[in-house]
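Purpose: get a first structural picture of the assembly so the mutagenesis plan has something to point at.
Setup: two entries, given in the order below. No constraints added.
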Amino acid sequence: MTSAAPARRLSAAGFLATLALGLAILFGAPHALDTFGLVQCTGFAALAMFGLSQGFVWGFAGVMCFGQAAFLGLGGYAYAVAVLNMGDSSVPVLLSILVPMLFAGLLGYFMFYGRISDAYIGVITLTVSVILFQLVNATSGSQYRIGVAELGGFNGIPAIPALNAPGHPDEPLDIEGIWYAAMGALILVYALLRGILASRLGRVVVAIRENETRAQLIGYDPRLYKLIAFMIAAGVAGLAGCLYANWGGFISPTVFALPMSAQVIIYVLVGGLGTLIGPMLGAVLIQALIIAAGSQSAVDSNLGLGLVLVGFVLLVPQGLVPVARSLGLRLLERRPRRVAGTAQDGLATGSAR
Amino acid sequence: MNAPSPLTGHHGAPLRPLVEARGVTMRFGGVTAVADVDFTLGEVELRCLIGPNGAGKSTFFKILTGQLKPTEGRIRLRDTDITGAEPHAIARLGVGIKTQVPNVFNGLSVHENVFVAAGRRKSIARTRRIVDETLTRLNLTGIAGRTVGQLAHGQRQWVEIATVLAQEPELILLDEPAAGMTHEEVHRTAELIREINRTHALIVVEHDMPFIRMIAKTVTVFNQGRILMEDTVDAVLADARVRDVYLGKQAA
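Result (structure tokens, whole complex):
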């Protein structure tokens, strides 16, 4: 009890610092950036949330989901179709979370209760995202419509109505409003996932990642907990899809495509597996890098990006956040003993949340 | 069954056994790891299982905890037929096991290991109390914040025993609890087992004969998947057949 308390305090400090930074960005960005910059940051926030979903399911639940784009796409399309039909955006936002969650519940039930091994879960999720891509890609023509919303095949759905204040579909949010919605949602989801990980549900999910056999032998059903974590991550990815659709006012089947699923894995690898801050940071870094690579002509942009990724995997295999953390701890250990002890306890609980 | 009557209570009235296995057989392809085993354990009984490597002791434990489904036979835990039930379901009925190769949550702290084990379906206050008690009881309070994966083998064994106790089981299975422990730790383990046995039933698999002498009353000897004999510790350790199987000669 006594010796675990400093660890909890240290991890709480990290949480509050992240929260404060998030709020500072939330309220600071509209003043510091021009319209173009703010739109760009809204896109970053949507993809950071996508990274968060992958970081949760892979880093904490240990489920190798390599097709997280399936849930991003389902969320985006669910929002687009629903908002075109309903006008008001409140229910469509909920649907963008619920539809991917239900889909994940069904898929996850067969995977986890069917005792599919980790590697095959990766293959199945990846395959499902590719199937969805092909499926939505093949919906060209006015016969493929849900209500008034035409799916549009590979052209996607253009002119998606933006979020509006609940009950006022005629007053859509402006660019600044969408930024507040996206960044605010990101902060909320981060806090929510932190809360889940601190709860007993989260502790069991992490324990199952550590040793499934032991978790079973003390009475927890790993299949159920993995399914719950898988569904939570799908809901987060779905909300990210909704924000993504709002960001451009447009969605196309590319949200389901392989590069999307691959990109989010890279966010997590660069930022740090087993952390929540890492995948968000990774998303922003990689996206900023992609934009920078596209706006210069000295090096082929794909080649440059590839080199950066190879460099990361070779030089910083644990990702940025864990490396920064252990560096910080080493610095702390040089200071008096009492502080060093606290730092070690912090490392011990693996409270990289 | 020539077991020395754990089946009768103080006044000779028959008690229902805690565990009752009948005709349990486990085949892996052509290999029969456990063959037609009948095994009965009374309430609050302490039983030691001994036998050479490959005799089927650990396989039998895996069947009792649901990690393996027996090819044939039935197992009852009090009134419940647990044959082929899921491991988590059997654990919820009150069976805890320390496995032969330590199964712990390596990336978590000692405290978190015990907390997760103690916390199933219990209030947070009660969970905390159990965690504190268990850590104190097993002398782990000093290393509660350490990551289990970084601990020495003996300490990890203690952590695993702590998780088993924290789940408050009624039947505790210990697979080689003294392996890799120092002389002093072995004594502490024996003491702990005797203390647990005041309120709980235990089955202990062990090779360490002095350790068995410290704790055992009744010993069941496994050989080649079958029960060779079941008797008091003195009778078993004096038996020529038991010596033969341990020395590699096969008893008829």
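DSSP finds nine helices and ten strands in chain B.
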